[in-house]
Amino acid sequence: MTDNNPSHELESEVRSYSRAFPIVVKRAQGARLWTDQDEEYIDFLAGAGSLNYGHNNPLLKQSILDHLQADGLVNGLDMASVAKNEFIDTFSRHILEPRQLDYKMQFCGPTGTNAVEAALKLARKVKQRSGIISFTNGFHGMTLGALAVTGNEYHKEDIYSGNTNVAFMPYDRYVDGVEDSSVLLRKYLEDASSGVGLPAAVILETVQGEGGINVARSAWLRSIRKICDDFDVLMIVDDIQMGCGRTGTFFSFEEAGIRPDIVLLSKSIGAYGLPMSLVLLRPELDEWDPGQHNGTFRGNNLAFVAATRAINLYWRDTNFSGAIRKKSHRVRDFLQRMASRFPEAAFEVRGRGLALGIESRAMPEIANEFREQCFREKLIIETAGASDQVLKFLPPLTISESELEAGLRKAERAMETVLRSKRGNPVRIAGQA
Ligand code: PLP
Fold first, then answer.
1. What is the DSSP string of 223-242?
2. Residues 211-260: pLDDT tens digits?
3. Ligand 1: which atom is nearest the Cα of residue 142?
4. What is the pLDDT of residues 104-129, one digit of tens each?
5. Which one of 26, 123, 173, 181 is least enclosed by Cβ atoms within 10 Å?
6. What is the DSSP string of 272-299?
C-alpha cells in the first residue's frame, strides 16, 4: 500500500504500522478510529495489545482527568506517590492475593523490553550464571538483551548481538510429530556435553503473540516448570502481550496452574495506552542493590491512576473474564466457519481468549492479502508469525458486541474477496442463494 502522508518525509524509514495502515488518525474511542478525513475504522489490533480496555475508555479517562485537574504528580522517577501507593495496594489486594501469588513489584522504564532486560539481569545476578534459554518464535522486544532472546530473523542480525549466551529450544508443538518438546530441554540440561550449559533462567510466552499465536499447552508449561525446579533454573513468563486479561484470565499462566518465578507485564497494565512496565518477582529473588536497574521514566503516575481504576472496574469479580470468554467463543466460531467455507485454504484456527489467529496451510502468504483487504474494508488487523503468515485477531477486550460483529463482517468480506480471486470463480455468500 502507498504511504501518502507528507510528514513521513521527515520520519525515519523505521516506521512500520503507518505503512501497513496508511491513514492519519484523528480520534479514537473504544474499538473505533476516525481519520483526518472522518472515515471510521474498526480496530482489531488494539495497540498491539496495549489497549485491552479500548481507546479513551471514558471510565478510565475520568480518573486521569481528575488526577491532572488536582495537579497530581505526573513523572515521579521512582519516588513514592499517592498514585503509586494506590496502584501497589490495589494490584496486591485484587490481583495477587486472590491468586495466592506472592510477588514483589519492580517498576521499570516505560516499555515491555525494559522489563525483559531487568528480568534477564536479575536472573543472572541471582543465579550467578549468564546462560538463558529462550524458545523458537519467541518475541521479547528490541533492546539488545531482549533481542538476544527473540527468535525472529528479521529483527535479529548477528551484528547486534555478540556473545549473549542464549540457547533456543523448541516451543510446544514446534516440531511436527514431537509430542512433548520439553523432553529435549531436560535432555540438554542433563547432558554435560550437550553444548548448552546450565542457564540462569528460561524465558517464554504462554501464547506467542508476535510469533504467530502459538499456544503452549498447560501440560507443556507444567513440564517446563518442573524442569526449572529440578535444575534450579528460574522460570520467567513474559506476559507483556498475553497478560491483563488477553487470554481470558488476568495472567495467561493461570489455566496451567503454574507459578513463574518472575512475571513480566507491560502494554495493557497502564490501562489507557499509557506506558508502564512491571517485573513481578518472588521476594527472595529481590537481590537488587538500590538503583542498580534504574531509569528516568519508572514513575508514570497517570498510568498508575489508570491501572488502579482498571483493576477496580474489571478485576474485582469474574464478570469481565466471563465476557472475554463469550467474545472469544464468538470469534473462534467465526474463524472455524471461515475454515469450513474455504477448505481449499486449509485454515488452522488457534489461540486463547481474545488472542486468536488463522493461518492458511495451503497458502500461507495469503495472510498479508487478507490484512490489506481488511484495511480496504476499514478494519485494522495485523499479521504475525515468522513470515507474517497468521492473521491475528486482537480486539480490545471491552469491544461491544455490535463492534465485534461489524469487525467480523468486514473480515468475512475481505476473506471472500481474496479467496474468490484465488478460486477464479464466485464464492457463495453465506445466507444467499
Ligand atoms: N514481550 C512481548 C511478549 C511482546 O509482545 C512485546 C511487544 O510486542 C515485548 C515484549 C516488547 O514490548 P515493548 O514493545 O513495549 O518494548
1. HHHHHHHHHT-EEEEE-TTT
2. 999 999 999 999 999 999 999 999 999 999 999 999 999 999 999 999 99
3. 16
4. 999 999 999 999 999 999 999 999 99
5. 26
6. SS---EEEEE-GGG--PPTTTT--TTS-
